[in-house]
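Quick illustration, no need to memorize.
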Amino acid sequence: MSILEHFTEKALQLMRESHTYRKMRLLTSPESSHVKVASEAFFKEQLLLASNSYLDLANIPELKQAMAEAVLEWGTGSGGARLTTGNKTPHEDLEKQIAAFKGAEAAISFGTGYMANVGTISALCNKNDIVFSDELNHASIIDGIRLSRAKCYVYKHNDLDDLKRQIAEAVNSNGEKLQNPSVRGLIVTDAVFSMDGDLADLPALLKIARENGTLLMIDEAHATGVVGRTGRGLAEYFGCEHADVTVGTLSKAVACEGGFVVGKKQLVEFLKNKARSFIFTTAMSPAVAFAACNNLRYLAKHPERVKKLQSNVDFFCRALHRFGLNVPSVPSAIVPILVGDEEKALKLSLKLEEEGILIPAIRYPTVPKGRARLRASLMATHSEEDLELAAQKIAEIFKHLE
């Protein structure tokens, strides 16, 4: 056995045996509600129920044309980090637009949402601090906490009584209140949980944070452009104030690339000088920044796309219920269809693909073992006919495999 095989072969074999081995699927057309998929078995158009491009902005002709023109004006790359030579006019314009859309004082953009979470948490916290994290938080939040070296208390998913118990335990073990400068606390949570589609209770979390002298950070990756009357996120949905730190992405509903943090101007200035994933990386292409800004302006002017997406989610959930599947009625664009067994989830996904419906199986380690599922994610451009057919096929194949 070679040295490389010694490092890798056992892990790969275990993944194959446990049905958690992954392969990339090749799409040969742009991301939209219908796509072309190449595989060894077939090559056909698929109804896509797996995209994070929730508003289907990526193929709007005027937005594509604007990005093409931005490349001609600004070139293909930025040439440097933001703090050296990479800071261009489109980056500044993008951050002003993000702040305006979110109703915040200021914004800072990152290369990805992952980099935004990792950089923000590891900048705000150190080994003397305490982080309280929802057990279903995204991997980027978990990795940010690990990098910070802060002590982490993981509370049960959306269980705010457990969160309060964990805060009390942390205070008692340290012998000091969290608002003491030597013992700082941060509560961090997804806004929309990416595998379940449910929401964090922002008003209740704000109350807990204020009562205990902690910062509150939420990740609105799957909420921006989706949740709230005009897609502005949890604060709009609940009619409350924003968290102290709000993270988001430009790669999902905004249909471009990048991540961001919004909040007070002082927070943004702090991150510019402390977030390593901002400081030590080349800035996103200015053409990409221009496109993200333009797409965000389009979203602000077209709230009807958000309304249509929300209508589609309601229709799809009701259709699944009619065909006998017990799925939650979610307030986001993510509809989980719990299967349980990893092998069964894979078979269900493959059977649906043969029927022209693309919904990947989500398995361990993305979700716990025995909690495999189909993760349907909807778009504003799905028709009710598409969704009715998909719900019928999912139910038929699901019952056949039981």
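The chain has a mean pLDDT of 93.
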